Amino acid sequence: MLAGFAIAAVSSVLIALAALYSFARLEADRQQLAQADELVVALQAIQALTTDAEAASRGYAITGDQLHLLPYVRATTQAAAQLERLHALTAADEWQASRHAVLASLVTQRLELASTLVQTRTSEGFEAAQAAVAAGNGKRVQAAIGDTVAQMSASARGLYEEQAAETRRGTLITKLIVGFGGLFALVTALTARAIVRSDYAGSKKAHRELNEANAHLDARVGERTAELTRALERLQLTDAAFRGTQDGIVITDRACRVLAVNPAFSRISEYGEGEIIGQHMRFMQSGKHDRHFYQQMWDGVLKAGAWHGAIWNRRKSGELFQAWLSLSRIQDAEGHTTHYIGITTDAGRMNRVPTDLERLAHHDALTGLPNRLLLMSRLEHSIERARRDASLSAVLFLDLDRFKQVNDSRGHAAGDELLKRVAERMRGRLREVDTVARLGGDEFVVVLEGLADVGEATRVADALIDELRRPFDLGEFGVARIGTSIGISLYPLHAGNRDALLETADKALYLAKSTTRNTWRLAPQPTAEAESESSPPPHAQSARMGLRKTTRVKGRASPRRRGDAGRREGGPDVGVEHEAPAAAPLRGPGPQAVPPRPALRLRSRSPRSTFFCA
């Protein structure tokens, strides 16, 4: 009995030991399987992350779109974490540890190549990045990473297969030991085998799914590479068109700071690309446009999204030139303005014939001064400005004295030369914002803008009278002496529109010529009925009261000094009469000096002169 108990006890102990041995082997198998799965998953993850980093860096290098930097940074960070995890998994296996070191070196090289590609695109531009992509170093390193991952995965699977085979042998030994010793040992062995097979099947399924995922990833990488290649081709065509067009193109941010220009824009502006990038576009301001012009331009951009028109700009050399500008804005998906694009055509260099035709249509062929058509346009603009700024606008109607004698006695060629010399002198006495036009024959009209009082207009008339009294050297036609009579009309003191201004100035000129020459005359004051019909702006009333107070004196009309005012006794108010003295001393440093022109006090603010930014 004791022997039986001993045998039973020994048998039970053997069965228990065999069961414990089987359970220990099964637990070791599960751990080995889990470690092998974790190792394979980590290897596959590292390979996928380096592929993502490659695709993101190539995408940024080709397109320059910073949206590719986010997946690049994420893949780089996760790859480093996976390498640390893999180091812990391979530390116990000397061979795997050595292969891990090789893999870590390859991954580091791949990430450095991707980083170099990103830095090259950022610092050196598209062409250098394209050259780095074409070198193909990343593909070589990526292939080495794939080989190393395959070796380590195969080694992990081999170790697991060895461990599984050893477990199967141990299970068989356990069955022999247990024999028919008990149902518990048999159920335990069968359960252990079922568990092993289930885990192994799950591992095979996971491996199959991982391989399918890798195949799908490879397909996506191929598709993405093809898309990027097509995008690169489109970018190359766009860049060729951008650099090859003869129109100047400038791209700015929403604050009108220059981001890019093409070579044509540099040729037109005479500025190098390095001098323009980062500048605000007002650096090409010409000073010929007022605030109203730019306000209309930006109203068109904001309302219609684009504006087209002629504009004056200034080259680096200081030369003013007229250009045709097409300005448009770029918006994001939410409708916010992100950039502006300006396309400039140099009208002076590329459209000589249309420009010459337009000049012939708006300028006098002999003197180059504006003709009646352009005069009426500028006069209308002057009235609008005076109305807007509550200032005065003056029209000076000039008729040359003794011009007919020169023309008849010395010929039409001498008369034409004299008219050109008169035009040059008059232009020299006026500001850029003022206009001098020739109506025909020896009649000229001057339009003065932004006047603060009547005295500014009369001082200009004094200066012109003195200037035209000086002798004219006509070369082969000898020296000619002439004079001029001037009629002055001011908006809104004497008239409320351009036609009335010219008419009243013409009447004042008739009064000046009917009395004496070399003099100016202010237009007659409008009657109460005319004032009510013209409806002058409110600021005209105070100016007109000041004018009447200073110009009406009692007594008979008689020759007066420059600037004197008066009226004929018993007659209507005929306005202000001026007579230049017969031998008035010339002021200035030399014998040809001209009275200095006092600066006009403009009431309006200086316009914000820019290329196309308000």
Your description of this structure?
With 614 residues, this protein is of the alpha+beta class. Helix 1 packs parallel to helix 3 and helix 3 runs antiparallel to helix 5. The protein is rod-shaped, with a radius of gyration of 47 Å. The strands form 3 sheets. Strands 2-1-5-4-3 form a 5-stranded antiparallel beta sheet. It has 18 helices and 12 strands.
Any chance you could write out the topology, listing elements then pairs?
Blueprint: H1 2-63, H2 69-90, H3 94-123, H4 126-135, H5 137-178, H6 183-244, E1 248-253, E2 258-261, H7 263-269, H8 273-276, H9 291-304, E3 306-314, E4 320-331, E5 337-346, H10 347-350, H11 352-362, H12 372-389, E6 392-401, H13 403-410, H14 412-428, E7 435-440, E8 443-451, H15 454-469, E9 472-473, E10 479-480, E11 483-491, H16 498-515, E12 520-522, H17 528-534, H18 539-551
Parallel strand pairs: 11-12
Antiparallel strand pairs: 1-2, 1-5, 3-4, 4-5, 6-8, 6-11, 7-8, 9-10
